[in-house]
Amino acid sequence: MITPPILQPGQLEIAAGALPELLLPPAHLFADRARRLHQLAEGHSLSDYLLFLGRLAEWQQTELDRHPEISVPDPHLLDQCREHANPPLVPAGWPRQPRWHEAARRAIDAVTQEIPLKGRQALSLLLKADSGWLETQADALLQGNMAQLDLAAAPLISAALQVQWTYLVRQLQPNQIGRPERPDLCPVCGSPPVASIIHTAGSTRGLRYLHCALCGSEWHVVRVKCSRCANTKGIEYFGLEGANGEVRAEACPSEDFFTGKRCQHRSSRR
Question: CA neighbours within 13 Å on the CB side: how many for 269?
Fold first, then answer.
């Protein structure tokens, strides 16, 4: 286990001002993810599932590498978004390009060998679905509406959407993006983070970044602080008994500043 350095009071502010607040996804984002998933699969009780995700990530990298050119926000819109602290690529305000429909279907072919026969049958609806159904599923996924979501198709739909948004984000520069009004949401696309990651190497070693679930961007949030409500008191960390402690769940007991309700925030932290 690699233990990142502990920053002392005062160093947090210095680090935050001197180091990049926003890290856009690299060109090899999905290849790195696939490699890590295949490593984790070795001897793991969930090896079949991790291999499935690894193969899906390999497919995502192939799709990203050959992604055709699509429009991105013009400089005027980017300036407006930065001025008003709005993410420029919020799914609700930025149109999805229809090519993701066929991409989601292609994903089935890419992962067929990793899916048992029963699972392949469950995905038959995705193969036959029209564009209206696919768009409805995308809306449900991006809005967190689990009641309307086809859980069998969701991983492939989300994989296709991740490719499109990662492509869009890679056409931008960090200095074109401002800090969002909601620091718990991605400053680029407004999506929630999937986890927070403490970097263990390079110029960002020891710093925590939230990782966007949709576009793969990372933005800095100081450690020992609730990423949702900014509370610094009573933060607790939980891990699985017998695990190495590299992955922990963060829990906040405070009142959520944005909703006025008890925060009850839970996030995974690596």
Answer: 27
Task: Pick the closest to residue 7 from 197, 205, 235, 247 (CA basis).
Answer: 205
Count CB-CB contacts under 10 A for residue 161: 21
Whether 263 contacts 229, CB under 8 Å: yes
CA distance 60 to 254: 38
Half-sphere exposure of 53 (CA within 13 A, CB side): 17
DSSP string, 170-196: TTS-GGG-PPPSSTTS-TTT-PPEEEE
Tell me the per-residue pLDDT of 151-199, one tens digit each, with 9 for 90 and over. 888 999 999 999 999 999 999 999 999 987 888 899 999 999 998 888 8
pTM for the structure as a whole? 0.83
C-alpha 224/C-alpha 226 separation (Å) is 7
